[in-house]
Amino acid sequence: xxxxxxxxxxxxxxxxxxxxxxxxxxxxxxxxxxxxxxxxxxxxxxxxxxxxxxxxxxxxxxxxxxxxxxxxxxxxxxxxxxxxxxxxxxxxxxxxxxxxxxxxxxxxxxxxxxxxxxxxxxxxxxxxxxxxxxxxxxxxxxxxxxxxxxxxxxxxxxxxxxxxxxxxxxxxxx
Length: 174
Fold this sequence. Notes:
The protein is of the alpha+beta class. It has a single domain, classed as 3-Layer(aba) Sandwich (Hypothetical protein yfbM fold), CATH 3.40.1760. It has seven helices and four strands. It has helices spanning 12-24, 45-55, 60-71, 100-111, 115-120, 126-133, 144-164, and strands at 5-10, 39-43, 96-98, 168-173. Strands 2-1-4-3 form a four-stranded antiparallel beta sheet.
């Protein structure tokens, strides 16, 4: 079973409803089931995106944007989402989240990153680029650059949609 990063964009009211459900349920079931259209599976791309951004010509603020988009923040208490037997992150770290204001900021910063230019810093030879990135990226069918561009664009679009709708983003590994 592969463990991949998941993101869900949800209204604050939905999170409050899940918290209430967990408190009211004898077994702590939060009834967590965000709409599939608002869930993004980033596969194993998060580590690779962060690595490429480290290698690219980004300033500290730009380099931190993908990190925050992929790591979230612990300010919102999500312990109720990670309680057995209904844990949404049984194979990874505790779930994290970003507030609507944080989502706005991350969406703005991700929107300003020219990811094709970041990828252009890598060697043109895919094998050399893969060796520089590391983390098993050499095994990606179709090459790491296409994979990373597709996942970065999906991440940017996901956050843009969350920002436009003033939603929170919850992140976990499953």
